[in-house]
Amino acid sequence: MSEERNAQPVHGDGLVVVREGDGPVVLAIGPTLDPVLEATADLDVTVAYLSRVRPFDARGLRALDPTDVVLVEPYQAGTSSAAVADALADRPFRLLALGVRHPELHRYGTGAEHRAAHGLDARGINTALDAWLPLAA
Predict the structure, then answer these.
(1) Segment (H or E) for 58
(2) By residue range, what is the domain housing residue 99?
(3) Is residue 64 included in any domain, yes or no?
(4) Is residue 43 in some structural domain?
(5) Mean pLDDT by 10 residues, the chain (137 residues)
(6) CATH code for the domain of 50
(7) Alpha-carbon torsion (63, 66, 72, 75), positive or negative
(8) What distance in Å separates the CA atoms of residue 125 and residue 89, rounded to the nearest whole number?
(9) Bridge-partner residues for 17, per DSSP?
(10) How many Cβ atoms are within 10 Å of 53's Cβ, its own excluded?
């Protein structure tokens, strides 16, 4: 999908817990891990990583037993929301889906400018979390 890479490779099959916390699960997909880690550095959240979403690791997500999930995808916001909902269908949970929003931008400059325009840089992710997390408490 892109040439973007995280600074360090994450080894493991399926969902990999990168950092454990007591708050919501922030699920970073593909190259969103670095900005997610930066955005959540001072937050008590669990950061989990998927290198790909198909097949979705429902078992891995269920094992975390989240009541609040923040899904950060490098493509259309909500693309994997149905997979999260299916994985957690038997329990109550809240979901915040971050990703590329409408309208899709075609003249955005650099990759960093594109991510910032859609709130997918560390600052944008942190702003979205600040607005949403008080509701998760």
Answers:
(1) helix 58-64
(2) 16-136
(3) yes
(4) yes
(5) 74 94 96 96 97 92 97 94 98 96 73 89 96 74
(6) 3.40.50.920
(7) positive
(8) 26
(9) 48
(10) 17
